[in-house]
Amino acid sequence: EEPDYRAKQTMLKQSIVLTFLILALTVNTNAFCLTKGPYYLASQALAAAVDNNTKVGTLCRYGNDKAMNDLCPLQCKSVIKATWGDCYCEEPDYRAYSGNNLMRTLSTQEIFEFIAVSSRDATGAWCRTYMNELGNKAEWTCNDN
């Protein structure tokens, strides 16, 4: 019986941690900006996640294939959504200085634009269609319409 009790105790601890993590992300993305620390971390993760299609293990890929635009894997969508919110809208020009040489030069808003809009560096990008859906576009442009 003791191992079963320990397993239940471990599951309870994991549930509590997961609940606090979800709460922190929800407060960061959907409410007012209590502290910018989580936003800065999410922005750094976003910059590090966006990379060229040839890189194995990239969370958010871009390249020269327009067919990529409709693909939006959960890991890419999650890192995008974790960055949205009031803290982002208060400081969209924050530069994380992480990621590849290109992402390192861009602000968070510029990274969102890079994903959402075709350019010579990226005619295709994962989650481009998703980023341009009306409600989602309002999130990264900070437009409540």
Layout: helices, strands, pairs:
Elements: H1 2-30, H2 37-49, E1 50-52, E2 60-63, H3 74-81, H4 86-90, H5 108-116, E3 124-125, H6 128-131, H7 134-141
Parallel strand pairs: 1-2
Antiparallel strand pairs: 2-3
Would you give an account of this structure?
This protein has 145 residues and is mainly alpha-helical. The protein has helices spanning 2-30, 37-49, 74-81, 86-90, 108-116, 128-131, 134-141, and strands at 50-52, 60-63, 124-125. Strands 1-2-3 form a three-stranded mixed β-sheet. The longest helix has 29 residues, at 2-30. The termini are far apart. Mean pLDDT is 84; it is low at 26-30.
Query: What percent strand?
Result: 5-15%
Could you give the order of strands across the largest sheet?
1-2-3
Q: What is the overall silhouette?
A: globular
Outline the low-pLDDT stretches. Answer: 26-30
**End-to-end separation:** 57 Å
Reported for the largest beta sheet, the result is: 3 strands, mixed
* Integer average pLDDT: 84
Q: Which percent range fits the helix content?
A: 40-55%
* Assembly state: single chain
Contiguous helical run count: 7
Series of secondary-structure elements, N-terminal to C-terminal:
HHEEHHHEHH
**Structural class given helices, strands, pairing?**
mainly alpha
Gyration radius (Cα, Å) is: 17 Å
Number of β-strand runs: 3
